[in-house]
Amino acid sequence: MSTDLAEHVVVITGAAGDLGWGIARECLGAGARVALIDLDADALAPLGHAEDDRILRLQCDVADPMQTRAAVDAVLARWGRLDVLVNNAAVVTPGDKIGDLSATHWHQAMSINLTGAWLMSKWALAPMRRAGRGVVINVASQLGSVAAAGRGAYGTSKAGLIALARAIAVDHADEGIRALSLSPGAVLTGRVLRRYGHADAARDALAPRYPVGRLGEVEEIARTALFLMGKDAAFITGTDVRVDGGYTAV
Fold this sequence. Notes:
This is Short-chain dehydrogenase. The protein is an alpha/beta fold. It has eight helices and seven strands, in the order E-H-E-H-E-H-E-H-E-H-E-H-H-H-E.
């Protein structure tokens, strides 16, 4: 199976992160035009070739209604269409127990991880509905389905992303729009490396928790996202696709 995204426009939030850029690379390889959206404009600047007119870099706070609408408007002004939205922007709050979590950190997790995805979806759905086609992918997490100590705010926001994808799928199926969530397990990203110091430490700490005995790779998650965008996944909607090495199976 191969995914052809020629002429398609894909919008990816949190695009400066390893996973966001990994998904973007797969989309570009499949022929898509890609809008990279992130709060950190400096981190977006070196991604891809500066002269590649298939890349649009946009700074945006996904928790801001006006900035998200302006970002979608900028995509439409550049390319006149929007075919796929990947809601990948996320923040991990401090690892406090629910009873100790500050209201600031709770609201931060909800506003960026969940409300940001709703806002981006709200604006992106308008051109999708006019075109009678579209795909929304919410990058959730295994922690949207199972709990982990100290990750209450993060997990709750990711569970909300799973529910949001189902709601979009049900509300807009008759308009040719699919929506689903993609839930990775632990992936060897820069965020994980910063937390554990180096790759071996991350593997030693995390891999034993997974039946497959290892961590995921960015490319594995990105290629799953690419598949879900394409025609071969046309009958997949309203569900959560777990790419978690069996973590939630035990």
